[in-house]
Design goal:
Length: 852
């Protein structure tokens, strides 16, 4: 066989078995093969899988053990397998044709294929990957990088169940810092702790950059060898991409010294380089299914993308500020004068883009300063140093005294500097200074610990102590970020242009300045176009009907809620005709808020047949949301009049008329919402629809055939919405609220319910996904209110409800069934919210609870 990756033709190649050596974790099996021949195998109990001793397995045909269907699936995945750093996954495969299901991973290692096999998780199946998308949607809402990282740690812990999840960022020297974390409330915090580079050596970081997920389910779990132990070439099998590969004994001892029993890491890659890790710790053994690990890896990749996107957004904002600074500076010198004469104004403008404590202008031997800086004589000496150190380019340091010894004389004024040459020869500078930032760094142990002799001589030995070791850093300023240096470089070009314009007004110099400006504009155009191309690519991959994923989620979510409300209205009456008045009022209350009283309904109420009711729900949803966003309900004066009338043949005429709102302009394009309004009733119900856009307000007319109208009747008087706070009415005021318990087996819905309860004033929210966990929390005596999902897979929450009732703790139910048939009679008066629910639904349930 040729060198490189093996061929995917598994029928023609006949190789001599290759012998390798290695060790793996014990919760799965590993098989390596070339062509159709098994070449090595590792397992705690290989007889349980193949029925043979591993020594007898080597060199036998794979088809003797794998079922034809399984072998077909493996060959198909080999066909699409990428390079040596890609892994193909196969879930729920009947490997031996005996009904046992396994999850598998397949990757290339040298001239061999490596097949990793794990038993399929028994019991209830959970689609962990489906949790990733809504989690990412929540991450997109983070307003800052710190909040993004904190939210990511929280979601990863919810997805995996680890006791501690940390966002660990590598520094340039290989050391790391825990910048965010999520805890179960019973373990110590590592946030803000620094770890020396030796804790994760360079070879480990290289492996993290190649294999994005590593897991240890139990540090005390024995590893097992790969057979045979040696081969003709003596080369071991490369298990870099293996998920079952056991980690270094040094790392295991490191975790044992921390008290950690299980761990997982998900690499965070930024532009092809290792930015950091999602590090997960558990203080008891924890085995995650392959689907859960796959979802964790996918979540980590999406988080890395969002992290880079957020950093790019902030960088773009700073570059935009740099562009505005360029325009401002050019405008200030357009009327003539010198750079130093306008230095005070320049300094103020520069400080809005690059923060500093002092600034010096040094042009043609003239000295101007503002803020904390060296004096003129001291700076003249520094300028001579800069002529060699920072000539013709932006030059920066956060500890000038370490490089330029005379700077120690003015260390009380400045410790770091950023120098911008503003002439074509090393002579003139604008220099920004920053004061010393006395900084205390918390290390997890002494980062400069002496080398210890291990069992194999002077080599890496695991850290035994994680006590906080504080380092006080002096003589350093706050570091100059990469974006600040790039902004300074753009500013240097701008200032150079200014100096050239002021020094020589000749035509040739002006042309040079214009070319320089054109170059900057072209660069800006180039970058903006790249960004626009990226945005266009993202939009192209999004669902139709939305320009962004957030808009897609908002539009689809509101339409789903509209349909859900219509469905509830119909099902509450046992699928009998429902009131059109009620439908319109419900939509107005949901989306018009305090403007709902400006929606007036005239004429008789119409009872709409169930088959047409959801169609009308979508139409009135689009009309209402459109009015709230752009029409009469978008200000404080407009109103909507909905006139209902029975025509001669028993049909229903609906006249929607908006007035007194903002002036209306006909839309230039028809979106999906407009299509619903104009075409749904004609297409689905055989009626008519027309929409006009007079300047005084949108006017829509609909005719619904008589076959969809069950009856006309006098409209009922609407009930007034409760004005007081339901939480207070129920005795759950902010002053008396204790912990709130959410019992929900779906982690996404649980997090949504937690957010709703926090909005209602519950600062302490606890989540349980199983009855036993919920009962433990109830028995703790700290729960003051509970929200119970009726159905918890194979169980219901009735036992939890009984326990709450015995203790007099108020609670409500949540259900996707929309009915009470599965609830005990004793709970018939307990309020219930129907999924999907929101803040308004829970508030209404609390108000109902207060009346009991």
């Amino acid at each position: 066989m040729a060198d490189g990756a093996p061929t995917v033709d598994l029928n023609t190649c006949d190789l001599e078995p290759i012998h390798v050596i290695g060790r793996i974790q014990s919760f799965g099996w590993l098989v390596s093969f070339s062509s159709d021949w098994i070449i090595n195998h590792a397992s705690l109990n290989c007889e349980a899988l193949f029925g043979l001793d591993p020594h007898a397995l080597i060199g036998l045909p794979a088809a003797q053990f794998l079922s034809p269907d399984a072998l077909h699936d493996v060959r198909s995945r080999l066909q699409i397998l990428g390079g040596g750093s890609s892994v193909e996954r196969i879930f729920e495969i009947d490997l031996m044709g005996d009904g046992r299901l396994f999850d598998m991973a397949l990757h290339i290692s040298g001239r061999s294929y490596v097949l990793e096999i794990e038993p399929r998780e028994s019991g209830r199946r959970r689609d962990f990957v489906s949790y990733v998308r809504p989690m990412i949607e929540r991450l997109r809402e983070a307003p800052s990088l710190d909040q993004l990282c904190a939210n990511a740690a929280r979601h990863m812990r919810a997805l995996t169940g680890f006791d501690r999840v940390m966002i660990y960022r590598f520094e340039a020297d290989g050391a790391g810092e825990v910048i965010a974390e999520s805890l179960n409330g019973m373990v110590d915090s590592f946030r803000g702790m620094h770890f020396p580079a030796s804790d994760i050596p360079a070879q480990a970081r290289r492996l993290y950059a190649r294999n994005l997920l590593r897991i240890i389910s139990d540090i005390d779990d024995p590893t097992v060898p790969i057979y045979p132990a040696t081969g003709p070439s003596g080369d071991p099998l490369d298990l870099s991409m293996s998920g079952l590969r056991a980690v270094s004994p040094i790392h295991v001892e490191y975790l044992r010294n921390m008290g950690v029993k299980a761990s997982m890491s998900v690499s965070i890659m930024r532009r092809g380089k290792l930015w950091g890790l999602m590090a997960c710790h558990h203080y008891s053994p924890l085995t995650l299914s392959y689907s859960a690990r796959t979802a964790s890896e996918l979540f980590g990749e999406f988080f890395a993308y969002l992290l880079e996107q957020k950093e790019t957004d902030f960088a773009l904002a700073r570059r935009s500020a740099s562009t505005r600074l360029h325009d401002e500076i050019m405008a200030r010198v357009a009327g003539g004068g010198s750079l130093l004469e306008a230095f005070e104004d320049f300094g103020e403008a520069i400080g809005r883009v690059i923060p500093f404590d002092g600034a010096v202008g040094w042009v043609d031997g003239r000295f101007v300063s503002r803020g904390a800086t060296p004096d003129e004589a001291q700076f003249a000496e520094l300028a001579r140093f800069l002529n060699t150190a920072g000539a013709s380019t932006v030059w920066s340091t956060d500890a000038i005294a370490r490089i330029f010894e005379p700077a120690g004389e003015w260390a009380d004024k400045a410790a770091g500097l950023l120098a911008l040459p503003v002439s074509r020869t090393p002579r003139d500078y604008i220099v920004l200074f920053r004061r010393e930032q006395l900084r205390e760094v918390n290390w997890a142990g002494n980062p400069e610990k002496t080398i210890e002799l291990g069992p194999n001589g002077p080599r890496l030995t695991p850290r035994k102590s994680f006590e906080i070791w504080k380092e006080e850093r002096r003589g350093q300023s706050h570091s100059w970020s990469e974006d600040e240096i790039q902004a300074a470089d753009s500013l240097r070009v701008t200032l150079l242009e200014v100096v050239l314009r002021l020094a020589d007004s000749a035509h040739a110099e002006r042309e040079q300045a214009n070319r320089q400006q054109d170059m900057l504009i072209a660069e800006l155009n180039h970058r903006v176009r790249n960004i626009l191309n990226l945005i266009r690519a993202l939009v192209t991959q999004s669902k139709e009907g939305a320009r962004t994923i957030d808009e897609f989620a908002e539009i689809v979510g509101s339409r789903i809620h509209a349909l859900a409300r219509a469905h509830d209205q119909v099902t509450q009456k046992d699928w009998t005709p429902s009131s059109l008045y009620t439908l319109i009022r419900t939509e107005a209350a949901a989306y018009a808020g305090h403007s709902a009283d400006r929606v007036r309904i005239l004429g008789p109420d119409a009872l709409i047949a169930p088959g047409a009711f959801t169609t009308l729900a979508l139409v009135f949803h689009e009309l209402t949301t459109n009015s709230v966003k752009y029409g009469a309900l978008s200000d404080t004066h407009g109103c909507v009049t909905v006139a209902l009338a029975r025509v001669a043949d028993g049909a229903l005429e609906v006249d929607w008329r908006e007035s007194d709102g903002p002036p209306v302009c006909p839309p230039t394009r028809r979106g999906f919402g407009s299509t619903i309004i104009e075409r749904t009733i004609p297409h689905e119900l055989g009626g008519t629809a027309s929409v006009d856009f007079p300047v005084q307000g949108l006017h829509a007319r609909f005719l619904l055939p008589a076959e969809h109208i069950a009856a006309f009747e006098t409209p009922a008087v609407p009930l007034a919405e409760p004005r007081s706070d339901p939480a207070q009415e129920s005795g759950l005021s902010a002053a008396s609220i204790g912990a709130a318990l959410v019992v929900e087996d779906n982690v996404i819905i649980a997090m949504e319910a937690e957010d709703v309860l926090r909005d209602l004033g519950f600062e302490d929210c606890r989540v349980a996904g199983a009855v036993a966990d919920a009962l433990d929390m109830v028995h703790s005596g700290e729960i003051a209110f509970a929200m119970l999902d009726v159905n918890l897979g194979k169980d219901t929450s009735e036992d939890v409800a009984h326990a709450l009732t015995e203790r007099g703790i108020p609670f409500i139910f949540a259900s996707g069934y929309g009915e009470r048939s599965m609830l005990a009679e004793v709970f018939r008066n307990v309020p219930i919210v129907t999924k999907p629910y929101g803040l308004r639904d829970v508030k209404a349930a609390l108000a109902q609870l207060a009346k009991r």
